[in-house]
């Protein structure tokens, strides 16, 4: 057994690498010469793709829903294997990663504040304490309390109802009138546990003032409390009651001063939720005519939706590599090495059904992936689980990348019944 943080062959434990960013962590670890280990459940590990199993030097099989047991088992695993960094790759597990790194004396996030990066009620408090611009909000335990909060008129209409703990727009809705509030609260309270680990969720809901305007995301890598903001990404979503991300584009097309402000605000949000050695994924909206980016949420994790791929294709910055460097206490490489453009576009159904046929044409400069296969049920478009597939397009300019993505999605054939 060896221990320590030598520059070569450092070992990082990833608490659940199965999410969207796992593949980017695997690529980055390979490039940096870092060995990856996973903490997960035996049955979740059984479902890992072959490339993920092959990329791991070892697995700590535990019960991530049982915090004392998981901490004890991961701690002895880390000591036995000479682990020198802990990376969470699953939003609900980011507080656990902070507790583990603290127990091991390794670089990591502030365990006393880590809950704020998972729970939108604690997050709202953390933003208020640090003066991060954010929509006004209130919490409610049930529809009756939500009606009382909404009738105070401080949040106005429309307002946004969302689960205190969830992601992927699950259970999030924009509510334009009191008559729709009960249904929205019930939809947000549907999730009591997070799959696949069975983590118990806070079933309270957050009611938020609706922020109009364009939406952006900006990730921040933090090493030893020093924030390194990454490029801003423009986010496209559906409109109406359910806001599902339909695409992400980098660069975001903002004026330099506005982009600087978004990066500054995202960094403040990441620090506010206790990120010290890690990464924060922050989403903001800028109301028309305003210069203030309002923070919608921050997670202490890499972004999902292949944003790592989009940012790297456009700028050369590997968010995953920077994250691994951060959890090892190293100065992250975050300077862009190219000025290109990339976009991801998701294929969404108009309504749910059974997927009968899907074909996405191959076009130079673009590649696509299917999320669902013929025969699969496609849910109604209320959250990101309805996505049928995606296309990533690269070009010299944003206009070129978006045009290419348009061409591919227009020519894609999707049949549902
Ligand atoms: N206060 C708000 N004002 C306007 N739109 C919002 C607000 N909160 C959420 N949304 C929209 O809903 C989407 C999902 O909400 P979010 O808080 O990011 O939840 P999740 O954790 O599921 O991603 C956002 O990307 C945004 O488009
Ligand atoms: Mg979000």
Question: Could you write a compact summary of the structure shown?
Answer:
The chain is of the alpha+beta class and 417 residues long. The protein has twelve helices and 21 strands.
Mean pLDDT: 96
Overall 3D form: globular
* Most strands sheet: 8 strands, antiparallel
- Overall CATH architecture of the domain at 11-108: 3-Layer(aba) Sandwich
Q: According to CATH, what is the class of the domain at 11-108?
A: Alpha Beta
Q: First CA to last CA: what distance?
A: 57 Å
Enumerate the strands of the largest sheet in spatial order, edge to edge or round the barrel: 15-14-11-12-13-16-20-18
Relative helix content: 25-40%
Q: Which ligands does the model contain, each kind named once?
A: adenosine-5'-diphosphate, magnesium ion
What does the radius of gyration come to? 21 Å
Structural class: alpha+beta
Number of helices: 12
Walk me through what this model shows:
Helices cover 30% and strands 28% of the residues. It contains twelve helices and 21 strands. Strands 15-14-11-12-13-16-20-18 form an eight-stranded antiparallel β-sheet, sandwiched between helices. A hairpin with a 2-residue loop joins strand 11 (214-223) and strand 12 (226-237). Helix 4 crosses helix 5 (94-104) and helix 7 crosses helix 8. It starts with 10 loop residues before the first strand and ends with a strand. Bound molecules: adenosine-5'-diphosphate (ADP) and magnesium ion. Residues 135, 160, 162, 166-170, 172, 208-211, 215, 237, 243, 283, 285, 296-297 line the site of adenosine-5'-diphosphate.
């Amino acid at each position: 057994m060896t221990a320590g943080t030598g520059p070569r062959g450092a070992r990082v434990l990833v608490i659940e690498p199965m999410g969207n960013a796992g593949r980017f962590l695997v690529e980055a670890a390979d490039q940096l010469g870092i060995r990856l280990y996973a903490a997960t459940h035996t049955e979740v590990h059984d479902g890992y793709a072959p490339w993920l199993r092959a990329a791991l030097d070892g697995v700590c099989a535990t019960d991530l829903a049982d915090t004392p047991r998981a901490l004890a088992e991961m701690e002895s695993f880390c000591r036995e294997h000479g682990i020198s960094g802990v990376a969470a790759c699953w939003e609900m597990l980011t507080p656990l990663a902070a507790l583990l790194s603290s127990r091991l004396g390794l670089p990591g996030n502030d365990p006393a504040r880590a809950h704020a990066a998972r729970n939108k009620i604690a997050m709202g408090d953390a933003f208020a304490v640090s003066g991060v611009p954010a929509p006004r909000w209130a919490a409610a335990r049930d529809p009756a309390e939500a009606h009382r909060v909404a009738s105070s008129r401080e949040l106005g209409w429309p307002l946004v109802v969302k689960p205190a703990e969830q992601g992927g727009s699950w259970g999030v809705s924009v509510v334009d009138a009191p008559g729709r509030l009960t249904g929205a609260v019930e939809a947000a309270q549907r999730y009591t546990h997070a799959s696949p680990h069975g983590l118990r969720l806070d079933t309270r809901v957050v009611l938020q003032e609706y922020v109009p305007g364009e939406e952006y995301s900006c990730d921040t890598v933090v090493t030893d409390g020093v924030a390194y903001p990454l490029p801003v990404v423009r986010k496209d979503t559906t409109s109406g009651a359910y806001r599902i991300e339909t695409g992400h584009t980098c660069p975001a097309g903002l004026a330099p001063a506005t982009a600087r402000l978004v990066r500054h605000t995202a960094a403040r949000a990441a620090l506010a939720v206790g990120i010290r050695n890690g990464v924060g994924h922050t989403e903001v909206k800028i109301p028309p005519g305003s210069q203030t980016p309002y923070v919608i949420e921050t997670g202490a994790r890499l972004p999902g939706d292949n944003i790592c791929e989009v940012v790297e294709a456009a700028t050369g910055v590997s968010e995953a590599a920077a994250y691994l460097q951060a959890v090892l206490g190293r100065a992250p490489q975050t300077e862009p090495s190219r000025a290109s453009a990339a976009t991801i576009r998701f294929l969404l159904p108009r309504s749910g059904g059974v997927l009968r046929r899907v074909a996405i044409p191959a076009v130079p400069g673009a590649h696509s992936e299917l999320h669902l296969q013929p025969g699969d049920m496609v849910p109604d478009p209320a959250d990101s689980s309805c996505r049928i597939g995606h296309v990533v397009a690269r070009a010299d300019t944003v206009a070129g990348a978006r045009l290419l993505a348009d061409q591919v999605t227009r020519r894609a054939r999707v049949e549902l019944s």
